[in-house]
Design a protein that fits this description.
It is built from one helix and ten strands, in the order H-E-E-E-E-E-E-E-E-E-E. By secondary structure, it is mostly beta strands. It folds into two domains: about 35 residues, no CATH class; about 100 residues, Beta Barrel (OB fold (Dihydrolipoamide Acetyltransferase, E2P)). The strands form three sheets. It has a four-stranded antiparallel sheet with strand order 3-10-8-5, with no helix packed on it.
Amino acid sequence: MNTDDKPAADPLEGKLIRDLAAILEETGLSEIEVEKAGLRIRVARQLQIVAAAAAPAIAGGGPARPAGAKGTDVSSHPGLVTSPMVGTAYVAPSPGAAAFVKVGDMVTEGQTLLIIEAMKTMNQIPATRAGRVTQVIISDGQPVEFGEPLMVIE
């Protein structure tokens, strides 16, 4: 912020920034932005990216990859479903409920695959194409970044 154009920072703004930073730590988000009364504050942090191949098995007991699948790079797969936002991914509609989909399931275009919670809002993530789910890359309750691989549909 350019101090030549703006008045001195309000001590409450500093507290707000610290509070937002604490929210980032608690939720695992990488950034958060708040706007109130013409004041916009964005707090971001750097995250260490972990390879998707190291993702644990999904809820429901099935492996993240079909049996016999090799650790191939899915980043250019035409059926790759990526996260459209930063948030927390959930594979089921509620704790203890059955997963929306699992490896081997046939899905239709537009069918809900999972939900991502962002800013206390549950966002349904639809299938971008019809086909069979061949990989579930994320685990239930996992923080996800924009563009992060979630599933593969063939």
